[in-house]
TrEMBL record:
This protein's record includes keyword Transmembrane helix: yes
Name of the protein described by the UniProt record: Energy-coupling factor transporter transmembrane protein EcfT
Membrane topology of this protein: Multi-pass membrane protein
Organism per entry: Candidatus Brachybacterium intestinipullorum
Cellular compartments annotated: Membrane
Regions crossing the membrane: 63-84, 96-116, 136-154
One CC-aspect GO term: plasma membrane
Keywords per UniProt: Membrane, Transmembrane, Transmembrane helix
Amino acid sequence: MLTLHRPGSGPWHRLPAGRKSVLLMMLVLGLCLLPTSRTSAAITAIVCAACFAVPGVGLRELLRQLCAARWILGVTAAGQLLFLGPEEALANTVRVAATVALCGLLALTTPVSTLLEALERALRPLALLRLDHRRAALVLTVALSTLPVLAGLARQVREAQRARGGGHSLRRFALPFLVLALKHADALGDALAARGVR
């Protein structure tokens, strides 16, 4: 399975996966509960930047995460501007950006196997409801790692188009991106099947 983990020895890398997941989840929840205002947007941006501005990660990685999610952020901002005012659009777009970036931080600083083990432990009570907690943990882990992978594939397609002198045509972008995404899905399916997951 493709992993986005980058080995390191910083504070985020040393923090156990379960505690780190809970901490980031509570942080995202707290930021989303702030009132919708410019001040809240500024606080959210500062907190998100502070999370990345530690040894082993860095603000450059935050910019990379936001750049990879720029299409999502653009659509979010456009929809918010269309239906709400500029202040609400700014606050909500910054919230989405912080959520995406902090999820990326979790994936970058935690090996997939460690994250999977932590999720399995957290979801163990589902067994009381006769639900497979291991499968639920695997689905959540795959979902967490899929968005950055697709963003990376989109970047590859755009770079290849620029190298060939292609323009910014959505039609010319969509087909190669879809082919790469389906190849990734096939490879992921084969990897899961090889591990006995059906």
